[in-house]
Amino acid sequence: MKRLLDCRASDFRGMDKKGLRDAIEKTEGRTVIGETISSVQPLFPEVTNAELLKAFGADMILLNMFDVFNPKVAGLELNQAKSGGESLSVINELKRMTGVPIGINLEPVPSDGGEDLLQIEEGRTPTRKTLEEASKLGFDFICLTGNPKTGVSNEGIEAAVRMAKQHFTGLIIAGKMHGAGVSESVLDLEAVSAFCEAGADIILLPAPGTVPGVRERTLAEAVSIAKKKGVLALAAIGTSQEGADVETVRQIALSAKRAGVDAFHIGDAGYTGIAVPENVMALSIAIRGRRHTYIRMATSPNR
After folding, report:
1. Does residue 235 have a pLDDT over 90?
2. Which of 160, 193, 243, 280 fits a disulfide with 126 by CB distance 3.0 to 4.6 angstroms?
């Protein structure tokens, strides 16, 4: 199995869940996952935000606010029309255009959410139907987490992992990058252990400096718990610091790498729907240098 940073589009096309997980592990903390809100106008109308993220160094693309029962990616409307509107073509086309694995956020929101919490469509939640549909659409991975003000709890994420283990064929990422409107610890060591036991392949954790009180040593302890259980760890920049200055992003990235994470996430709120592109490149260069960053940026999806 190749390291993920050596993989090209042809490698990803034939890669299963285990292959993707092992490729990330072999890359030794040099994998970048870029997140984008798939339903908003792209930063530049001529290209999708997913293409832009890949062009600035992302190895994997995570779609936020994507409804599996109403599958649309802003900027791909013409491609959908060309293919006859088949839902299956949306993600396949995005893979063809970027040449990298594509994933989706699913949010285990509470059924009794109060008035202060956001109500979201069923197609963005992890039910048996949505998980099976996500597999049919061709997603390579899912991220079980919560957007702000959704009321997603650690307990809800744990239950969602167990369900995903049964009904989703790809890689399972699980955890929180911020509070999501719930008064509980964002980085909870017991929750980390529970997600691992439930069957998560990668644990999502807030990077140091992104959530109050999350220090490098705290993250390192959580990473150690996951590693002992054979599970990978992902550090997230998901508190709008994807829109901060380059030096802040570099510092967060290096701190998380010292803590031992296997991969890095950069969120979608630098501008509306996408990180500041230069910050994606800065993150990539900080954790793996210009060589691997420029190669990912330049690699054709036809390779």
Report:
1. yes
2. 160
Residue of 121, 69, 71 lying closest to 92 (CA atoms): 71
**Angle of CA points 244, 206, 231, to nearest 5°:** 135
- Show the tokens assigned to 30: 């040099």
Q: pLDDT of 129-140, one tens digit each? A: 999 999 999 999
CATH number of residue 81's parent domain: 3.20.20.60
Cα–Cα distances in angstroms (integers) from residue 138 to residues 7, 125, 270, 291, in the given order? 19, 17, 27, 30
Residue 196 has pLDDT above 60, yes or no: yes
Q: Name the domain count of the chain.
A: 1
In angstroms, the CA 27 to CA 5 distance is 6
pLDDT in tens, 97-156: 999 999 999 999 997 766 677 889 999 999 999 999 999 999 999 999 999 999 999 999
pTM of the model: 0.95
Domain containing residue 271 = 4-107+119-298
66 inside domain: yes
Mean pLDDT calculated for residue range 190-207: 98
Specify whether the CB–CB gap between 243 and 276 falls below 8 A.
yes
Which residues, listed in sequence order, are joined to residue 90 by a DSSP beta bridge? Answer: none
Reading the block at residue 106, the tokens are 């699913």
Q: What values do phi and psi take at 139, rounded to 5?
A: -65, 140
> CA–CA separation, 269 vs 284, rounded Å?
18
